[in-house]
Amino acid sequence: MKNGWLRLAALALVLLVGGAVFALRDPPSPEKAAPTQTASKAAPVAVPREAASDGRAAPVPERLIYEMALSQTVDVGDTRLVDDRLTARLEWMPIPGVRLVEARLGETALSGTGHELPSRRDLERAALVQLGPRGELEGVRFAARTEEPARLLLTAIFAALQHTEGDGERYQVEERDGTGTYLAAYEVSGAREVTRRKRGYVRLHEADGQMSVEGTAAFVLGADGQIESLRSRETTASHSPAFGAIRGELELSMRLVSRAPALDRALADARARAAAYEPARLVTPDGADDEALDRAMDEERAAGHTLAELRRAFAETEGSPRGGAAGQRRADLIETAGALFRVQPDAARDAGEQLGAAGVSDAEANFLAGALASAGTAEAAHALAGALGSRDATPEARRHAAVSLALSESADATTIEALGAGSRSDDPQVRNASTLALGAQARTLGGGSDGLDPVADLLLQFERASDFASKVTALAALGNSGDPRALGPIRQALAVPELAPAAAFALRFIAAPEADVLLVGLVGSGPEAVRLAAYRAAYYRDPALWMPQLRAALERETDPRCLAAIEAALARAAS
Amino acid sequence: MRSRFLSHCLAIVPALVLAGLATPASAACRNLWCQSSAGWSDSGFGSSYSLWTGIETKADHPDDARYDSSYLKAGAEFDVTAKVLGKSGSIANISALAHNDQGETAGWVSIVAAGTELVGAEMSNTITYGFDRTLLKADDSIKLLGVKIRLKGKVTAGLGVDLTPSLRDGAIEMTAAPFANAYASVDASVGASCAKVGVSGNMTALEFDAPVTAAATVTGGGTIGYSVDSAYSLHALDGKIKVKLKLCGTSKSKTIASFHGPTSAGPLVRASGTLSL
To answer: CA nearest B255: which of B55, B80, B42?
Structure first.
């Protein structure tokens, strides 16, 4: 979808872990990784640098055993949706010569609600933790058969226990977890205590949006630099327009309970996994894309409905008051038919044929064309174009088809051709609606015009128009297009009092600085009708640019209609 | 100005202020016209309107030489906006206005939906323009430990105008009844095999109509005969939308919208008489 659901907010807790695929661009291959320091830095702690650089023998590969406990919750507003508890034993075995650690949970006890829990088999399958040169987490490598729930949980654990080396007693580094990149501030106190504070995300792995994180991790290190214990707690916060505040909390504690030399056989198995496992990732592949979810919504809405039944139901609302229950019903039927057309393109084609047939009433045309516009698909747009061009179609049906094409999200040669013919119709209403729709379709075409240039026709139409009404219509169509070539006619029209309001409003979509310059001049000195049109146009302009202009206008403007238009534009800019 | 009209102005259309976001409610009636605007909103849903209705004459521009004594403007126009899932947008600008400028009378009807001008035509015959269309779409998702819950919101509106004009130079007679009835709906889907999501309820964003009957004639000698009768009917931001989640063993419901907006109706300006300008 265009903007975004990825209101990141979304990422919500995932925060704790993840969303779309975020494969490391250049995952260091185990074979190429630096052989010396990495063996020591693969430990989940800061190993003294001397150990790797002073020429002494490399440390003996070890297997560290921790007891760990994790809890994570997600609250949406005041409703707790996720509440997990996990206890486990963690085996942590750095693989010499590479920046990989084989990590494996055992003796897991997991309870939770609100999401799909990982299977024990997945949770206890070995994962490979890929670390950076200073011990920071680069990603986690899983067996291909590992399901998403286990990937999410394990990535959250490994992200929480990462520790990045630095210089001095206080240092700040960038680290990454399953949600994004954050700043970690480390503070070394005494010989054995290290505290990490994380705050904010400087980048998110997925889309743009807003999410914050705050957390503290307290490490206690052994004399050799290994983690003896860790207590980590972090909170993530996001916001969704629909659900409101979303807050996730993750607590992790672990304690070293034993250590033993790593067996050659175990190391060989780990190296074999390194050759077979997936590339390192911090975010798991997203199982459900938006398109699939949207289709599921459509299927559910359209289930059990037919075009004939929906058309009949809409007809039954005729004669009822426009608002109230009948209005709600009509809106619902339009949406349901739109969903049906997306799920069943053949139904959209049928609707187009029905719309283009003889004898269709205004109400029937309204329903069929409205539903096709709601569908927003190329098939629906073609169905509308077919109806507009049908010789049998009633003028009402053709007018409704043109209006729907003006609102359609799909434009191509078929729709442009149909509207071009409609704009030359003998019926004045069909002609008017088609001309205006031609401009709107030009805007939908945008850069991908594929050789089509309806704006050229509209410019010619403006030039040839001999009366104010025709010029206003051409200006309105050019305004719908947002094409910068309209600036010429608009400048001419602004000098003509009868055309100036239409010209001012026609500036609303034009992506050129001159449009704003003209509008600023108009709101500052034009007559009321022109100022009103300019404020209405400002509603659609860049809020950052117009916010100060509108605030200033609010102070000096006296006309109540203009004031209302300013308020509306300010409200939109603030939303 | 000599007038014998009885003006019933919409005192204050009650405004519902939600979540700290307020759009001022006001109704200004002056001479032969009324203007009113109000809005209702929280962070997720909302609506607003702005209306002008009545007759404007030289009396409204006493010091502006661009308006002569035969100047007339009559009719109604309103703007409607809505918000769904945090996204605001213009729903409709509907205008049915007739002018008399220096003896020449003309009328224009315009319907702009979601920023796109759908109708822009001279007034000629009795006609009804009416369109039911989807005019605003928005989406929102949250993700809970890998389970994506996706919402799609829409505002679908029936909008248009009933129009009966009778125009000749120096004389305007018209009845115009612009209307906009906008409804918000939400669909939901969830991306996990062990989860289900459903949406119940519905929401009226705004139901608004403002019929006006206006007649004004330039009778010569700087005198205008007039008659105007305008009213309004409003029903704003009302309803409840609830999302029901079954998340892998946990059943929860979350009300994402709950409003009890105002319903009101009444006359705006009702007057007849003559004006000497």
So the answer is: B42
Cβ–Cβ gap A293/B148 under 8 Å: yes
CA separation, residue B180 to residues A139, A523, B131, B206, B232 (Å): 54, 28, 10, 7, 12
Residue spans of beta strands (DSSP E) within B42-146: 46-57, 72-84, 87-101, 104-113, 116-122, 127-144
Among partner residues B79, B185, B194, which is closest to A331 by beta-carbon distance?
B185
- CB contact under 8 Å between A561 and B189, yes or no, is no
Which bin fits B154, alpha (ψ -120 to 50), beta or left (φ > 0)? beta
* ipTM of this predicted structure: 0.91
Q: Contact A114/B248, CB-based, under 8 Å?
A: yes
Say whether residue B153 is in contact with chain A using an 8 A CB cutoff: yes
User: Closest to B132 (Cβ–Cβ): which among A241, A334, A437?
Assistant: A334
> In the beta sheet, which residues pair with residue B225?
B217, B274
Domain spans of chain B, in order of start: 2-276
- From chain B, the residues in CB contact with A469 under 8 A are 108, 121-122
> Do the Cβ atoms of B252 and A509 come within 8 Å?
no
What is the token pair recorded at B72? Answer: 């007339």
Asked if A478 and A439 touch (Cβ cutoff 8 Å), the reply is: yes
Decide: B181 and A327 in contact? Cβ < 8 Å: yes
Contacts of A403 in chain B (CB under 8 A): 118-119, 131, 133
Q: DSSP class of residue A165?
A: -
pLDDT in tens, A446-496: 866 678 899 999 999 999 999 999 999 999 999 999 999 999 999 999 999
- Of B85, B114, B128, nearest to A242 by CB-CB distance is B85
Distances (CA, A) of A507 to A468, A497, A549, B114: 18, 16, 16, 15
pLDDT in tens, chain A (575 residues): 333 333 333 333 333 333 332 333 333 333 333 332 333 344 443 332 333 444 555 678 899 999 999 999 999 888 888 899 999 999 999 999 999 999 999 999 999 887 788 999 999 999 999 999 998 999 999 999 999 889 999 999 999 999 998 888 999 999 999 888 999 999 999 888 999 999 888 888 876 567 889 999 999 988 877 889 999 999 999 888 888 899 999 999 999 999 999 999 999 999 999 999 999 999 766 556 889 999 999 999 999 999 999 999 999 999 999 999 999 999 999 999 999 999 999 999 999 999 999 999 999 999 999 999 999 999 999 999 999 999 999 999 999 999 999 999 999 999 999 999 999 999 999 999 999 999 999 999 986 667 889 999 999 999 999 999 999 999 999 999 999 999 999 999 999 999 999 999 999 999 999 999 999 999 988 789 999 999 999 999 999 999 999 999 999 998 888 999 999 999 888 87
For residue B241, give the H/E element and its range. strand B223-247
Encoding tokens for residue B190?
Answer: 């969830």
Residues of chain A found within 8 Å of residue B249, distances taken between Cβ atoms: 113-114
CA dist A133 → A42, A230, A454 (Å): 9, 21, 58
Neighbours of A77 (CB within 10 A): 15
pTM of the model: 0.84
pLDDT in tens, A45-60: 333 233 344 455 567 8
Residue corresponding to tokens 């700087």: B222
Asked if A506 contacts A522 with a C-beta cutoff of 8 angstroms, the reply is no
Taking a C-beta distance cutoff of 8 angstroms, is the pair A479, A507 a contact?
Answer: yes
C-alpha to C-alpha distance for B169 and B69, rounded to whole angstroms: 14
Name the residue in chain A with its Cα closest to that of B48.
A568
Coil vs helix vs strand at B214: strand
- Are B22 and B40 a contacting pair, CB within 8 Å? no
Per the CB < 8 A criterion, the answer to whether A102 and A154 are in contact is no
